[in-house]
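As a warm-up, study this chain.
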Amino acid sequence: MALFSASGDNTYLWVLGFIAMWEAELDASRQMLSRNIKELRMDRGLAQERLALEAGVDRTVVSKIEREVSNPSLEILVKLAVVLKVPVSRLLCEQH
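Now compare it with the structure written out below.
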């Protein structure tokens, strides 16, 4: 038996719409995080490897975040924010 029935039931379409919304929000957040970390890192004259070393994470972690292929944990975001000398919220907010 199917979890959702498309016959006369809007639940299935609602779920698909909801999934599309959170995927779009996740993509936008990933792009913003990537852009902010790269911008802050470069403003401070840090190479990816140096940022990773000071934050105590693997070099590939910073690279993956900046290439938008990773969803870092809160722990990693805190470590990067500390090294970049910004609050974690600065990594996730839009800058003008």
